[in-house]
């Protein structure tokens, strides 16, 4: 029995030591996981701040260009148009060919002025700031209708519902980007925009009747070539705490569903 006494005494010590080591390892792993979570959170926060700063800089630049177009380029073109009008109506001008050319140039100036106003409004959507997303989409529809490029249908369940200003702007920019992609690549003739304000979410559905595309191939190509189309849309959705789902297939058109929880709206 005396020979077993040392073992009897050592065994509890070893057990306590083993338990201590296990507890230490578990606590260490927990601390490491917490540290990794914190690093991941800080990384995501930094990425979000960088995205917000990037988009904010883009908006400031758009506002500057819109003001320059409206206040300077627009004013100069209006002055040229006025001078041309006076020249055409000058009683001393009798040359029919010159008068015809003058009227044609005046019409071209009218078209250019309309384009300048449209571009200026697209860069800095005053209707969006004053009246909200639904009415801004209606104004966008009218703008495209005058060009004859696309037939756009806009649907909404509440005309005067407002979201946070920055979220309205992000959603509006996403629609502009989707329209730009449709014009450049889809060969579509019709686009439908369906804006739904619900109790728990805001949903914006964009659909075109274009030629569609293979989504997987496009994403792989953008990842390898550095394309920003879908990534930009996803980044804007993430900034709102929302989500975007894009579905498409060759010959089937394209559909984009943007969802924004009411808590973030």
TrEMBL record:
Bilayer-spanning residue ranges = 6-28
The record's annotation in Pfam families points to: HATPase_c, HisKA_3
Q: Which InterPro entries match?
A: HATPase_C_sf, HATPase_dom, His_kinase_dom, Sensor_HK_TwoCompSys, Sig_transdc_His_kin_sub3_dim/P
Ranges for the Histidine kinase domain? Answer: 64-264
Q: Which domain of life is it from?
A: Bacteria
Q: Which EC number(s) does UniProt give?
A: 2.7.13.3
What are the UniProt keywords, alphabetically? ATP-binding, Kinase, Membrane, Nucleotide-binding, Phosphoprotein, Transferase, Transmembrane, Transmembrane helix, Two-component regulatory system
What this protein catalyses is: ATP + protein L-histidine = ADP + protein N-phospho-L-histidine
Q: List, in alphabetical order, the Gene Ontology terms for molecular function in this entry.
A: ATP binding; phosphorelay sensor kinase activity; protein dimerization activity
GO annotation, cellular component aspect:
membrane
Which principal EC class is assigned to this enzyme?
transferase
PANTHER family named in the record:
NITRATE/NITRITE SENSOR PROTEIN NARX-RELATED, NITRATE_NITRITE SENSOR PROTEIN NARQ
Name-wise, this protein is: histidine kinase
Q: Species name for this entry?
A: Pontibacter akesuensis
